[in-house]
Amino acid sequence: MKKLFVTLFVFMFGVLLIGCNKTTTEAPTTVAPTTEAPTTEAPTTAVPDVMLAEMYEGSHTVSAMGSEVIYMYEITFVDGDYYFVSEFEMGEEFYTFEETGTYSVSGTTITMTPEGGEAVEGEYLGDGVISISIKASEMASRSLREMTALEVERLYVGTHTVSAMGSEVVYVYEMMFAYGIYTFISEFEMGGEVYNYFEIGTYEVEGTALTITPMGEEAVTGTLSETGLTISVKASAMASRSERQLTSSKLGIYYEGTHTVSAMGSEVVYNYTIKFINGEYFFVSNFTMSETEYTFEETGTYSVDGLTITLTPAGGEAVTGSINMDWSLTLPVKASEMGSRADRELTMTIPMPEVE
Questions:
Q1: DSSP letter string over 202-271?
Q2: 7 — phi, psi (to 5°)?
Q3: CA–CA separation, 305 and 107 (whole Å)
């Protein structure tokens, strides 16, 4: 647009200049028109800015400390900010490296500026693949690695109700996918007891077909859509597998958090969990003060709008929090009956199965 404006300005300036130079009137003369061969300039076409997917994942292997170390990582792009996380095992210890920063896209070039660091460039290669310069660990040097857009969302949630033992049993479950491995967790209450069922396996995606292979079982194929997943699941150890619909979600079921404050001359550590089930939340905080153990509980309702989560405590006023790029939550919680509400970070977790 700027080039067009300049061209028009030059053309108009030329016309005005010619007009200003005509100060005398002369008899018109007829000049035979001359025809020149038109000149053709190669058109210049700007490469449109590529639209990045929200998440990409990748992995690579290096030799370190006499063994092979597998790095698995993902990056999330949201509204000019990015979040990168890498996980690996070394010396029988698990490590996590995180990096945040800003990004911009010009054509197929991706420019990332790590927080406190210098900008680095990468490229969109096509077919959902990017090549970007990453650090896979705190001590690693930055190098170009290819990462692929997710073919399946990270998290899906679902629910259904069945009649059992003379009452209605409500099953809630979440299904998580990452690096070719999936986990399925179900929770339900029966006879006043809360139960969990766990399933783990591998998965493959081809088009809209998602095939899971539960550990020790045969493969099961479901169908992906823009908003969810239809697949046959087992909601309990004794249940038969049946087709259910799950919805893609940024909010999981289980979260935990902790913080420490000084009170009565000592440090008080608050440990708390929150569960989100079918529009209701259940918050439990445990702490010890003066060698006495305390528990504080809060229930209420919740709603999600984009990355904003609204909690309405029973008998209280609504408060809002956020779902973060690293899948954690920032929520204004009360950790005790007398405590004031303050923003705390809670991370996604799972209820650990009992080992017999």
A1: EEEEETTEEEEEETTS--EEEEE-SSEEEEEE-SSSSSPPEEEEEEE-S--SEEEEEEEEEETTEEEEEE
A2: -60, -45
A3: 31
Which residue, among 343, 338, 336, 291, has the nearest Cα to 321 in the 3D structure?
343
For residue 75, CA distances in Å to 53, 100, 252 come to 10, 9, 19
In angstroms, rounded to a whole number, what is the distance separating the alpha carbons of residues 111 and 99? 15
**By the 8 A CB rule, do 229 and 210 touch?**
yes
Greater confidence (264 vs 227) lies with 227
Distance of alpha carbon 171 from alpha carbon 277, whole angstroms: 10
Question: What Cα–Cα distance (Å) separates residue 283 from each residue in 50, 114, 274, 342?
Answer: 42, 35, 4, 14
Residues 135-165 have pLDDT tens digits of 999 999 999 999 999 999 999 999 999 987 7
Q: Is this structure's pTM higher than 0.85? A: no
Residue among 296, 332, 327 at smallest CA distance from 317: 332
Alpha carbon 204 to chain centroid, angstroms: 20
Q: What is the DSSP annotation of 31-73?
A: ------PPP-PPPP-PPPPP---SEEEEEEEEEETTEEEEEEE
* Mean pLDDT for all residues in the chain: 87
